Amino acid sequence: MLMVLVGLTVNCSAQRKSVETISQLQTQPYGKISEIGKLSEARASHTATRLDDGKVLIAGGMERNGVFFDNADIFDPKTDKFTQSKNKMTKKRVSHSATRLRDGRVLIAGGWSNQDSPEMSAEIFDTRTGKFTSVGDLNRRRAAHTETLLEDGRVLFTGGFDGTQSLDEVEVFDPKTNIFTLVGKMSNARLAHTATKLADGKIFLAGGEIDRGQILSSAEIFDPRTNSFSPVKNAMTAVRYKHDAILLVDGRVLIFGGSDSRDWRGQYKSAEIFNPKTGEFTPAGEMNFARFKIDGTTVLLPDGKVFIGGGSERAEVFDPRTSTFTKTEGNLGVPIHYASVTLLKDGRALVVGGYGNGTPTGPVSTNRAWIFKL
Questions:
Q1: Among the listed residues 33, 30, 48, the one whose alpha carbon sits nearest the alpha carbon of residue 371
Q2: Which of 87, 111, 240, 335 has minimal CB crowding within 10 Å?
Q3: pTM for the whole thing?
Q4: pLDDT confidence of residue 344
């Protein structure tokens, strides 16, 4: 009996040390974020797309309400410098989407070009010529939608806002024909939701706003082989929109932040994990900061951890092994909303633009940029 008690004492002591070690690691900053330069414009609700040569195309966005851009910046990670693109987009765009196609070109679509209604138009940025060229129209006007590259090279567009209501209609773009085709409807209209490509090529859609003040906790999966949707039986642990989600190395999906119907007053620190094998959502550790308006501000680092750079004055990193969030060293200075984060080829992350909590006349964006590195 004595031996058993001693053994238990040793095991408990080891467990305490393990917990203490994890606690110490969580309090120590992971990596560092530092300011590196400035864009040609103050931008928020822009897009940032890594090109085949490692440079980053930063397109459109807004300085403030009504001040929208049709120009773009190019970031060169070899020099850590920004230069304005010689050519402009065919339209001013805010809350649009962008995807690098298999051939290296970039498809840019939708968004607001004015304050009246979103665009149906789309265009292609050709990295060889540096020119933007019109490529036809979407079937629906869209802003705050998602754009996802499918395994077969087509591009999926889901949800968004047409100027009057949230959309449930889904369409795909075929780069071989430059044609947009409606392929079906989601089980719910969604805007400001997330779309995450799973390991099997299917697309996981979560949360969003179905109508003003009506936020969803539901999720569904799109199968590009059949152009069909299947509802996920279980709901998320909370209603979420203006959140973010990312595929982890092990095939699960991290979902975090966002807000409920109270918007600014309903921001979340909570996070959860979706397991595609079981269809279940389980709570993860809590973030250090409440965050929303963060879609596109998350990247998977080479070591399998997740860097989150938007929605707060501080960045943090999620470790899927411990399900914990750790602050990074360095301060952004402003709680950047609708910023962008891009993983560079060298493993660093580029954080660009965004706006703070606003002024009496509305939000004002920043032209600042930062780099995260280990």
A1: 33
A2: 87
A3: 0.92
A4: 98
